């Protein structure tokens, strides 16, 4: 919560030229000075003028660079103005909520000064222009305490060369249960026979047994959920080998409470909420990649009401092992305790039936080697209505 303290002086003379931009009648105007009490800098003061037009307060900063209109008798979700002691003091406070920045990244609404202290970039306004939409981009060595932060390669949007070790630390926010990791861009060197022996991306939480696979290659467009347990620092690291000459990444990090509508159900590494779409394994890379070894993840798919499950149809199904029953290489798609492996999914499609949950889940595991450099999975998912099963 960022309180902005507005001290309202006794009404002075009311120069009628103060608000030349107002269209309707200005009843009164006051000179106000605002100081940010965000715990950072109380000397950040701005003077602005306030007037009332009907039921709306009209503010104009004294130096004329901003103007805003705030409903006087309404408390909007974004900006609340409460009038204390008969209008002599106004406290405008706003929540540090997500905002859309001018740069199209998601930021958090802070005062200018707070944003500077967080090492963020102000990009646009929020909270009825009391706040600035603050986009925090973490670079190597940063500790991230804000929601909606971006971790990107040093030369982004250009590529970076190795060798390089770039890590950031994310401090869990109070009550956060999941870290959403979205690869807006992610391209580092791929595996050799499934093994990420050159470049790697890792996620670890201190004091936690939560595992995120060690991955590499091109995972642009994919998004994952990492369970946060406790308050231990979460580190995200990218290591580039000396042969790496075109690494590019921009990773959005969001911390979710379990009750957030976008949070994944517990145990889901991925959560597809659109009714139809595509599921791909790590480094599928548009059919030019290679399956990565040594992980198990659970992919979950929301099932809308009226539907009885999710139909997976084969785009690509290429796993080490021979179809249909020999999954001894350790690579398989697991659905209802049945393993599918080799190079065909069932007969090209599979119905994943809904049980009690509003979603279905499948597990994908990979073994310790991928000698034939099998590509992995690209499956279309779509809902199937109740009544067609059988
Ligand atoms: C505020 O003003 C608008 C437009 O003049 C009017 O429609 C609305 O009823 C007013 N609301 C209150 C609470 O006075
Ligand atoms: C007050 O704000 C809420 C939420 O922004 C809005 O739905 C409502 O119509 C507003 N009421 C008035 C009187 O303007
Ligand atoms: C990575 O994948 C994205 C999306 O499929 C693609 O646009 C991009 O060109 C790929 N990058 C490289 C280096 O192959
Ligand atoms: C982080 O921001 C997202 C929206 O981008 C929001 O849903 C979530 O609740 C926020 N997390 C916390 C811990 O406030
Ligand atoms: C889902 O149910 C249908 C019809 O009962 C059945 O044919 C199919 O095998 C089931 N799918 C799975 C993955 O068990
Ligand atoms: C592109 C690249 O640098 N690949 C290297 C990855 O690591 C293996 C084993 O160290 C090398 O043989 C590759 O040349």
Automatic annotation (TrEMBL):
Every CUB domain range: 265-347
Keyword annotations: Membrane, Transmembrane, Transmembrane helix
InterPro entries: CUB_metazoa (IPR058698), Sperma_CUB_dom_sf (IPR035914)
Residue spans crossing the bilayer: 17-40
Name recorded for this polypeptide: CUB domain-containing protein
Source species of the chain: Orchesella dallaii
Lineage: Eukaryota, Metazoa, Ecdysozoa, Arthropoda, Hexapoda
